[in-house]
Design brief:
Mean pLDDT of chain A: 96
Shape of chain B: globular
Largest sheet of chain B: 5 strands, antiparallel
Number of domains of chain B: 1
Oligomer: heterodimer
Structural class of chain A: alpha/beta
Largest interface: A-B, 21 and 24 residues
Distance between the termini of chain A: 22 Å
Mean pLDDT of chain B: 94
Distance between the termini of chain B: 24 Å
CATH topology of chain B: Heat Shock Protein 90
CATH topology of chain A: Udp-n-acetylmuramoylalanyl-d-glutamate--2,6- Diaminopimelate Ligase, Chain: A, domain 1
Order of helices and strands of chain A: EHEEEHEHEHEH
Chain lengths: ~120, ~150
């Protein structure tokens, strides 16, 4: 099931820090985690990624995996370099006051299911 | 067997400690592989292993050189760094074992999955390391119909 990124913004009460391809963008699954090696190995392409990490390398990982939308939880401060990188790559960055657990619950209610890549 | 000429060659410097640009080299290789028309699952393997090797240089070494050679049916990657080397390679391969300092771990790096991700994703992995000199990582990825 595909869910529009626009609908994610609403469901999370999120602030859009970088719009990226938000207007047309959709996700087909979700992944949650704060270890970059874990995300790069296990997240599936086309997923929304929920994390508390907000430094620029998060965008590098998202780009390598093919993640169109990153949700940064707990209202973590996001570095300007992260936003710059995301703009270059066309990746949507959302920030929400929700915790990662709360955000995943809300995404699940939208119909997004967890996806894990099989190595 | 005569050495086959690669379709594409790439050589880039990696700066130790430069977290802003970390991942750029792997990203460039991903674009090259996509344009060359390799299957996404194959590209993913190469990219995961390359990213981990690139990050190891950024996290642990002073500087490194990343070289990739792309052939019609395989990809060869070498990452040669000047750095601390790996004193106990067997230990370093254990999932969860890491020598990364706390501030690096807080950023979500140094979880101890780097070498095991590299091993899982590559078909051949050779590591030549000398303490207080550096580490050379050589990886080969073979494209085959059964094993994309």
């Amino acid at each position: 099931m595909k869910v529009r990124i626009r609908d994610i913004v609403e469901a999370l009460g999120a602030l859009v820090l970088v719009a990226g391809e938000m207007e047309r963008g959709e996700v087909s699954g979700g992944y949650c985690g704060d270890l970059l090696s874990d995300c790069i190995a296990n997240a599936e392409e086309g997923s929304v990624w929920v994390t508390v990490q907000s430094h620029p390398n998060v965008v590098a990982v998202a780009s390598l995996v093919g993640i169109p939308c990153i949700v940064i939880t707990n209202n973590q401060e996001v570095q300007e370099q992260t936003l710059e990188k995301a703009r270059e790559q066309g990746i949507t960055i959302l920030k929400t006051p929700l915790s990662s657990f709360e955000a995943v619950s809300a995404l699940s209610r939208l119909g997004i299911s967890g996806k894990k890549r099989h190595v | 067997m005569p050495e086959e000429h690669p379709l594409i060659e790439m050589e880039r410097e990696i700066a130790g400690g430069d977290f802003q640009r970390a991942g750029d080299v792997s990203s460039e290789l991903k674009n090259i592989l996509q344009r060359a028309g390799f299957p996404p699952a194959f590209n993913r393997r190469v990219v995961i292993a390359s990213y981990e090797a690139e990050m190891n240089v950024v996290i642990h070494a002073y500087r490194g050189v990343f070289r990739a050679r792309v052939y019609s049916d395989r990809v060869h990657v070498e990452i040669d760094d000047q750095g601390p080397g790996i004193p106990d390679l067997e230990l370093a391969f254990q999932e969860g074992y890491s020598t990364a300092p706390p501030h690096i771990r807080e950023m979500g790096f140094g979880a101890g999955y780097g070498l095991s991700n590299m091993k899982k994703c590559s078909d051949v992995l050779v590591i030549d390391t000398r303490v207080q000199e550096g580490t050379k990582v050589v990886m080969d990825f073979f494209l085959s119909p059964s094993n994309s």
